[in-house]
Amino acid sequence: xxxxxxxxxxxxxxxxxxxxxxxxxxxxxxxxxxxxxxxxxxxxxxxxxxxxxxxxxxxxxxxxxxxxxxxxxxxxxxxxxxxxxx
Length: 86
Description:
Blueprint: H1 2-21, H2 25-45, H3 49-73, H4 76-85
Helix pairs in contact: 1-2, 2-3
């Protein structure tokens, strides 16, 4: 079980570093979502289900939806698609 926890911790570090270096906003949001989901799994392993549910709902759910809506409102999603086509 300890190996699984170390793998999850390593994945958290990789996600944190890759979010800061990602140039694509959509990819950054998806990496942030995966970070929150892995963090909720770690909270379950630490026997704290209330924090796990909160992390999954707020971190991966509500915050990500707000990020997607913000990108859509500022028209950042369409512009990134046009830049990658060139």
